[in-house]
Amino acid sequence: MANNNSVSTPQTLSCLSPSQCTTDFSEQLALPIPSEQNWLNLFPVAVQRINHFLKLPMPLLFLNAQYWQTAKSIVTACNTSKNPLLALQDYDQERLFGRINSLNKEHVSTVPGEIFNYKDGILMLHISPLLVNPRLWFLLKTFLLTEQIPKSAAVNSDKLHSALPDSFSEKLKTKIILVANRYQLDELTQIDPDFSQINSLFTELTSDIKSTPDNIKSLQKYIHSLVAKNALASLSNDAFKVLLEQLARQCEHQHKLLFSPQFMESLLAYAHLLYVQDTNTQGFIDATHIEQALALQHKAQSNAQNFSDQALVEQQLKIQLQGEMIGQINGLSVVELMGYPTEFGEIFRISASDMMGDGEIIDVERKVELAGNIHAKSTLIVQGYLNHFFTHVANFPFSCNVVFEQSYQESDGDSASLAILLAVTSCYAQKPIAQNLFVTGALDQHGNVLAIGGINQKIESITRLFSLGLLSEPVTVLMPKANEINLILSKETLNLISTQKIKVYAIQHSLEAFPYAMSHSFEAVLEMINKRILFLHKEDDDEPPSFVTKCLNLLR
Questions:
Q1: 310-536 has which CATH code?
Q2: Is 73 exposed, middle or buried (0-12, 13-18, 19+ CB in 10 A)?
């Protein structure tokens, strides 16, 4: 309890302003783009490494990249000597090593593979086909070690009765760039623990870039090249601003931007289509065209979110948004669906009910195997942190059931830890929690509130409650202070924050949450729990002797 003196109160915490809940690129976009600006400056280490590889005799470069198109764009731009370059995301044994067609013993025809076709150039390969077909990897490994196509590599080579064509004895200098992420490289290690014996280089290619003024200018230069390449209309400064905000939102970071050629190209093409259809166009793609494209893309994949909203409107999912309740609180989660990547925020209820026990928090989700190991760990952390304050009690008399109400599928994560702590202490103290409160945040065993994922989707799920007519009065959101830098909220949410309909408080310690949840400090809530414990112990002391005890007393 030594750190209790540093606990903030509602008077010392101020709710976040709209400017703290997003990022603004207006100042950077107002600066001119230097004519010598090169977008490759976004990736100085990777570009240097790729350039060295192209000049060194090493046959293989491992390029650790999340996005294929990003890697392809950078390698293509680095190939200033214009060596023949082919990028293959999908290929097989025949495509790489060729095919032998034996018409008869005297006549043999060959269809060379790309390794032979690019013997003076570069083959850029995605690693996935090699992991699906490990034999293909070992054939490629043999080529990299010997600089010759393996005799058994070409399709139908095992059926050939005559000598192999001369191309199979020729020394080839084909350079291979293998694009993979770390999980795929680990899988390759399982297939071939000795793959590192190949003379190779390795470099990482991050998909997130820092949003410095220089990087923004470099990114603008790249976007201009995409516009020219695809014959699209030019972008206004407002359109650039919306696009950069969306790239920052994809990273969930106010000071980072996603570099994904595929994402940018598809969004710009969609915005260009809307620009062409706009009869009031000003001659360039404007912010409204980008926003319309994003809205249409979201609408096209929002069925699951609509079903969730409909269930709330029809009261099939029970939530309470006003008044006070003991042991019940509104949590915030992110729903991630399999298949096409779709995720959205959702409100859910956490309820706790106490019983006579020994301080155990019974995690019902874990008991019925509807929660993963991280969730189970977070519940035990909450239990240990709370029980720490009752070491003076010989026998803590309460236990608690914790349930994620109307949860019918497996969930995992620790972002509900703070909400569970509040629900359990409310139950033990018999002190109600305000129901216009929404809480998210992980905890360590000292009560510090830790960062969580999906903070934007979680807060925006509250915005949907306003648009659905389920909320009209102001509400409070408690979130980790560490996630403040991840806030890039939608315009609708920022409007609600500016009008104080949504009040967002960023907290660092769990003790800061109690005045908002129960209108009492944590010390006061502990005192309420201690009074209940003393009352129960007093009842035990005052209980009249049982019949058996009376009989034993008579025999003494």
A1: 3.30.230.10
A2: buried
